[in-house]
Structures are given as structure tokens and as C-alpha cells.
């Protein structure tokens, strides 16, 4: 299957640059896979399209402020650093060490700009609101990635300083800097486990009153964790879908969640995944004789047409990039021709696309 088969025309002005005025104020397309019919409504009407006994599965990952802005030492040249993940001892040939100043230090994998000038040994400094992080580039790795040692002088924890100094890592297609409101709006209301550099955006539409209404209608909810990595934005650079590889992402599905999934599967109730991240985690689990096993680790699962969905029978999702792995996943669930027809209709009706855009419910 060709990647070009998942292309569509999207006017740039439909790429949402800001969230709706109020959380949950998005539009919603409800697509029925059996009838191939689409309804146009508002996200607030989601409960009326689900039924008692449905199991809603959400991803409780929390986006941390992974974008650091600073300067080189001693030249003062501007530096941008996107933290991807904290490294353990021995990873990429480096490890975590103590700070010479008596503070704390950690080693992170990161993307840095300007890449050509930031060679091993380069010294950088990040400052904001009176807080300071000192960095040293340790190594250069594949796809322009760096390992960087971050030191927190004065004894404060590096992770605490990242929370204070860092900026919200808005996606590259949002052409503006982050502002104070993004700390709230680029985060789900049920975000709990810190570790993502991108939000599980299908969950951004949910409000606590909406969650309460779903519960009052007998719609069950369970939670898993999948930390979204920068690979979610990685373009598909191959011509054939089968040749693409997705970056690994860490996930945790607890015994409690696995038991809820097992009961829903046994009772033949719908399992509705909120987001492609939740879908990847669920479909990575092992199911033996109808029993879902809890799991923890990394998933490299690339869901594409032909995939047999073991657990997911419903999907809440945003509108995705042309020729992206996330669009391919959605097409695997709803059908390629069907999903592209819905996308063309959404463009004609001026739906908002991508992270801060509108949503679909596919049943």
C-alpha cells in the first residue's frame, strides 16, 4: 500500500492555532462503520452517542514543559532544546551523574537548535523567572539528537527546574509561541503521569462535567498510560506503508484496567479508545482466551490497514496530518476510502484540524 494513498488537500487556515474558547466547545463528526454514514454535532453531545455499558479508555499521561530556551556560553547565541526523555545509566553511552556544584544533574536525550554549532562539549544555560539550568552537550546521535547533561545548581531537583523554566512543547504546525493558557489547555483534565512531549489530543475535549455525565449514563471509564514521544510528529519518509517504522513509546496498563477490559470483552460491550495513543497501547496487550493481561514496556506497534483489532471497537480521535502514521491508523479502523471521504467533507464544512482542532467518534 502506498503512503500517497493517504494524502488529502487541507487549506492551511484550517489548522487550529488555538483551542476553542471553552474546553469541550469543539465540533464532532460521528461516523458509523456499518452504515458508512456521518453525523455532524458538537462534542458536548458525545454521551448521547454512547450506550450504557460502553467502556471508555483514556490515557492519563501528562505533558511536561519539555522546550527549554536559553543561550550558549560564552557567546550568548540563542539555543533551543526539546527534551525527549531522561536517560538511564549506560544509554547512548552516557549516564546520570552528580553535579560538581553539589546540586543535582541528569542526562537527557534531546533535539537542539542550532544543531551544527552544538557539538559535544558545548556549554549552554537556560534561565527563566530567576531559575537556572546549566547544560553540557555530551554526544551527537542519530536523526540529529543529542545527549545533554543538565545541572541544577543550588541543590534543587532538575525535574523541578524543568517545570519552572520549560515551555509547553506545542506541535510544529502551531505557528506561535506558547502562552500561559497552554499550560492548562494543552493538557487533559485527567492528566496525571508526567512524561509526554505531546498531548493525547483526543482527550483535550473532555471536561469534568462531561465525564460526570458519561458516568451517570452508565458508561464505564478506565485509565492507562502511554507517554507520547516526539516520534508522533515524525513524517512517513518511505513510499510503501509497510516500510515505515514508528518510534517506541512507553506504556503501562494496570491490573485494574486489564480486568475492566476483560469484563467488557467477556460481556461483549464496546471498548472505546480515546485517542490513537490509547489505541496503540490497547492493541499492544496480550489477550489469552479472552483474558487481557496487564502490560508495561515499550510498544513499536504500527497499526495499518489489515490490522485485526483485538480490543478496540470504538475510537475518539482528532483530525490528523496527511500521509501520517496516525491517519493510517484511523484508516485501518474505519476504512481508507471512508475516512478520506469524511476528511474531504470536514474540509468543505470548515472543521478545525490537528491538536487544537475538532474531533471524530468512530463506532
Give the key terms.
363 residues, alpha+beta, QueA-like, Thrombin, subunit H, 2 domains, 9-stranded mixed beta sheet, 6-stranded antiparallel barrel, 7 helices, 19 strands, 30% strand, globular
Question: Any chance you could write out the topology, listing elements then pairs?
Answer:
Blueprint (H helix, E strand, L loop, with lengths): L26 E6 L4 E6 L12 E5 L1 E3 L3 E7 L4 E9 L17 E10 L9 E6 L2 E10 L4 E8 L5 H8 L16 H4 L7 E4 L11 H9 L3 E7 L22 E5 L1 H12 L4 E4 L1 H8 L3 E2 L2 E2 L2 E5 L14 E5 L6 H10 L1 H13 L10 E4 L1
Parallel strand pairs: 1-19, 3-12, 3-14, 4-11, 14-18
Antiparallel strand pairs: 1-2, 5-6, 5-8, 6-7, 7-10, 8-9, 9-10, 12-13, 13-17, 15-16, 18-19
Helix pairs in contact: 6-7
Describe this protein's structure.
With 363 residues, the protein is of the alpha+beta class. It folds into 2 domains: 3-63 and 181-362, QueA-like (3-Layer(aba) Sandwich); 67-165, Thrombin, subunit H, CATH 2.40.10. The chain has 7 helices and 19 strands. The chain has a 9-stranded mixed sheet with strand order 2-1-19-18-14-3-12-13-17, with helices on one face. Strands 5-6-7-10-9-8 form a 6-stranded antiparallel barrel. A hairpin with a 2-residue loop joins strand 8 and strand 9. Helix 6 packs across helix 7. It is globular. The two termini are 24 Å apart.
Amino acid at each position: 500500500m502506498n503512503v500517497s494513498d493517504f494524502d488529502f488537500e487541507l487549506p492551511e487556515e484550517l489548522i487550529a492555532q488555538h483551542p476553542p474558547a471553552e474546553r469541550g466547545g469543539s465540533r464532532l463528526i460521528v461516523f458509523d462503520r456499518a452504515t458508512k454514514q456521518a453525523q455532524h454535532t458538537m462534542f458536548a453531545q458525545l454521551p448521547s452517542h454512547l450506550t450504557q455499558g460502553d467502556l471508555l479508555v483514556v490515557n492519563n499521561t501528562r505533558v511536561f514543559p519539555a522546550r527549554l530556551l536559553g543561550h550558549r556560553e560564552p557567546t550568548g547565541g540563542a539555543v533551543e532544546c526539546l527534551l525527549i526523555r531522561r536517560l538511564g545509566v549506560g544509554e547512548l553511552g552516557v549516564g546520570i551523574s552528580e553535579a560538581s556544584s553539589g546540586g543535582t544533574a541528569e542526562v537527557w536525550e534531546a533535539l537542539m537548535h542550532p544543531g551544527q554549532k552544538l557539538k559535544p562539549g558545548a556549554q549552554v544555560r537556560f534561565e527563566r523567572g530567576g531559575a537556572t539550568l546549566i547544560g553540557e552537550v555530551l554526544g551527537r546521535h542519530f536523526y540529529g539528537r543529542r545527549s545533554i547533561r543538565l545541572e541544577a545548581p543550588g541543590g534543587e531537583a532538575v525535574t523541578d527546574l524543568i517545570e519552572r523554566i520549560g515551555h509547553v512543547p506545542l506541535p510544529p504546525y502551531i505557528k506561535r509561541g506558547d502562552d500561559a493558557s497552554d499550560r492548562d489547555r494543552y493538557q487533559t483534565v485527567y492528566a496525571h503521569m508526567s512524561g509526554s512531549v505531546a498531548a493525547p489530543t483526543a482527550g483535550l475535549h473532555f471536561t469534568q462535567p462531561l465525564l460526570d455525565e458519561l458516568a451517570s449514563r452508565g458508561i464505564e471509564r478506565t485509565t492507562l498510560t502511554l507517554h507520547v514521544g516526539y516520534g508522533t510528529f515524525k513524517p512517513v519518509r518511505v513510499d510503501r506503508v509497510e516500510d515505515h517504522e514508528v518510534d517506541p513509546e512507553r506504556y503501562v496498563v494496570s491490573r485494574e484496567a486489564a480486568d475492566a477490559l476483560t469484563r467488557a470483552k467477556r460481556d461483549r460491550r464496546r471498548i472505546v479508545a480515546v485517542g490513537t495513543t490509547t489505541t496503540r497501547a490497547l492493541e499492544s496487550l496480550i489477550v489469552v482466551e479472552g483474558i487481557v493481561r496487564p502490560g508495561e514496556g515499550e510498544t513499536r506497534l504500527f497499526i495499518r490497514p489489515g490490522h485485526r483489532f483485538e480490543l478496540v471497537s470504538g475510537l475518539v480521535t482528532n483530525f490528523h496530518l496527511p500521509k501520517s502514521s496516525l491517519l493510517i491508523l484511523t484508516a485501518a479502523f474505519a476504512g481508507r476510502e471512508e475516512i478520506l471521504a469524511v476528511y474531504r467533507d470536514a474540509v468543505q464544512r470548515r472543521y478545525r484540524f490537528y491538536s487544537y482542532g475538532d474531533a471524530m467518534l468512530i463506532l
